[in-house]
């Protein structure tokens, strides 16, 4: 069973909406690194908050190429479904763009509003908003048949993203 482009796009967006945690894989001089992050999305772009001093943030500053995996835990392989995504990730340096990303996160996770007024406000001030620009998304869905995979390839948007985070490459802090 092959999905039409529209069916595939809708199935991918459904998976992005259904889940709240992504696994981000990065690589740098210290080797590979993986981290689980809460995310929000707009279309096929994902946003999260991280301290720029974390391993994954430091690795992304050196090499924006990254991979994301999104899936729920399953005990039955026939119910296994999720996404494998390749793309590039950047710290958003522009305050207006960062605010838009943060607003998406707050809309999905209202508890973030409490950070600004509570004991965790200091941690929020240290965090930066990051953007993952997908360029290849593979839907995995064993409910459609064992081993079902279908890939959506997007146009390369890395040139767009370079404008988002030109300051990070120069070592500026958020």
Keywords, please?
single chain, about 170 residues, alpha+beta, eight-stranded antiparallel sheet
Notes on the structure:
By secondary structure, the chain is α+β, with helices and mostly antiparallel strands. It has a single domain (5-169), classed as Pnp Oxidase, Chain A, CATH 2.30.110. 34% of the residues lie in helices and 36% in strands. The protein contains 7 helices and 8 strands. Strands 1, 2, 3, 4, 5, 6, 7 and 8 form an 8-stranded antiparallel beta sheet that branches. The protein is globular, with a radius of gyration of 17 Å.
Topology:
Blueprint: H1 5-18, E1 21-28, E2 31-38, E3 40-42, E4 45-50, H2 55-62, E5 65-71, E6 81-91, H3 95-108, H4 112-117, H5 121-126, E7 128-141, E8 149-153, H6 158-164, H7 166-169
Antiparallel strand pairs: 1-2, 1-5, 3-4, 4-7, 5-6, 6-7, 7-8
